[in-house]
Design a protein that fits this description.
- 86% of the residues lie in helices and 0% in strands.
- It has 189 residues and is mostly helical.
- It has a domain of 105 residues.
- Helix 1 packs across helix 4, helix 2 packs across helix 4 and helix 2 packs across helix 6.
- The radius of gyration is 19 Å and the shape is globular.
């Protein structure tokens, strides 16, 4: 067990969770920047797979993202460090806000601050979409490109719930993996 890595996981997720506003998709981008781009502990393709697992699991995506990243890097101790780092800041912030809710509720400065954060959150989400789309397009796998476009159209234009899209893609992936395994099995005979 690498104590330095565990410490780095904890303080990285603590820092990211402390200064991230806008929900789980924002922290997933920052997890990617930290653990893929900066520390090189996870490769980019694997991070996309981890994000897919985090999205398809029940619960908050920030916690799920921390779980899969922590597990990938250091197993169960990594999960514990990553989750603690990810949940401590929101717990403290929400506890303080709930204690002072009536003072914040009608405060024009707080309202303006939250309104201003929307632009930053939007930019980070656009960055995530761009990075993930760029990686899919680099592979030049036509089935993945079709899934990407069909998922967007289904969700944006037809308001299909993301859960249904994820379930359909999981079934497609299982079928594709089964067919590939069967072909490999036949080739070995």
């Amino acid at each position: 067990m690498d104590i330095k890595k565990l410490r780095k996981i904890f303080f990285s997720t603590l820092y990211l969770s402390s200064f991230t506003f806008g929900g789980g998709y924002v922290i997933v981008t920052l997890l990617k920047k930290k653990f893929v781009d900066e520390l090189h502990w996870i490769d980019e393709k694997e991070m996309l797979n981890l994000v897919a697992i985090a999205q398809s699991s029940p619960g908050a995506i920030a916690v799920n993202g921390s779980i899969v990243v922590g597990y990938k890097i250091c197993g169960i101790p990594g999960i514990i460090c990553a989750v603690l780092g990810a949940i401590i800041p929101p717990f403290i912030i929400l506890s303080a806000i709930s204690a002072c809710y009536t003072a914040f509720k009608n405060n024009t400065v707080i309202k303006a601050l939250l309104l201003g954060m929307r632009s930053g959150v939007s930019a980070v989400i656009i960055s995530v979409v761009y990075d993930m789309t760029k990686d899919v397009l680099k592979e030049k796998d036509i089935s993945k490109i079709i899934i990407l476009i069909a998922s967007f159209i289904a969700n944006y234009y037809f308001n299909v719930n993301a859960i249904f899209i994820i379930l359909i893609v999981i079934v497609y992936g299982l079928i594709k993996a089964f067919i590939k395994a069967r072909k490999d099995w036949e080739a070995l005979k």
